[in-house]
Amino acid sequence: MSRMTQTGWLLAVAVTAALAGCAQNASAPKPAPASVRRAVPSVSTVFQDKQSYLAQHFTVTLLVQPVQDYLTQMGSAPVSFDRLLITQKSSMTKPGADAPSHFINVVEYENAGNGLVRSINTLQNNGFDISTYFDLTYRGIFPLRSQKFLTASTTWPFLFEARQIDHLDTDFSAPRITYSYRNGISGRTVVSNPIQISCTSGLRYSASTLNPSIEGMAHELNCQWQNGNGVVTSDTTYTYLEKYGVAFVSHVKTSTSDISVAIDTFKVE
Is the dihedral of CA 119, 125, 129, 131 positive or negative? Predict the structure, then answer.
């Protein structure tokens, strides 16, 4: 994953344009000549049935075989829910801005087995959708497959996927956890330099302090995202919900913005 990809992923779970240089917003590759061009469905089909798109394109079987094998062999316990519905309130402050910007994230998490979670994250402003982000992750933190659609765009965006996992810690109760991997754009052969997410465990408290509907305990994971050049591109705090086995972003700090995220509603299905 390049810095651009990591940016797009964090941005989707926080707010749009949070980090600079987001490849998720990049335009699609130049079209092939008419003689070899194949029919491509309209982007509007994604917005018409988001659940179907998630089910079809964000499954373990679509990952490259070495990544599938790694995930199978690690034998992690599944998350404890079938589906979570969460509404988040996000506040973004940018240098020089007179006041923070406020957004709503409507997030659906689905149990994908073996500790994996797939989700749909819709970013809203003033009651209107701005973008929709699809992903497959390990417990809501470590990305495996992701794609972001801007509501106003008719161009198909890149779909990023992990091509090689060098290390993945599965014990989120440990004082430190790390994920090191290489990613690429689906359908292309080029892969990134190693990308690393390094996290240390922080405060632990009753999850009900976040929202009365949340059961069990929660603890913070303070993480640094490091790009392929070994440069830290963000400090991100996740809140890990121990009963449910999934985490969400609660704070992101980068060179261009500072974002805070709070849970407004929480429902288990």
Answer: negative
Quick one: tokens of 15? 């707010």
Residue 162 has pLDDT above 90, yes or no: yes
Q: For residue 3, what pLDDT band results from cuts at 50, 70 and 90?
A: very low
Q: What's the domain count of the chain?
A: 1
Say whether pLDDT at 15 is over 70.
Answer: no
Domain that holds residue 262: 3-24+42-268
pTM (2 decimals)? 0.85
Cα separation, 10 vs 93, whole angstroms:
15
Asked whether the beta carbons of 167 and 179 are under 8 A apart, the reply is yes
Using the CB atoms, write b or e for 22-36: b if 16+ within 10 Å.
bbbbeeeeeeeeeee
What is the C-alpha to C-alpha distance for residues 82 and 136, in angstroms, rounded to an integer? 15
Q: What is the largest CA-CA distance in the chain?
A: 61
> What's at 120, amino acid-wise?
I
Between the alpha carbon of residue 242 and those of residues 204, 215, 221, the distances in Å are 10, 9, 12
Can you give the CATH number for the domain in which 234 is found?
2.50.20
Beta-carbon neighbour count of residue 90 at 10 Å? 24
Tell me, yes or no, whether 29 lies in a domain: no
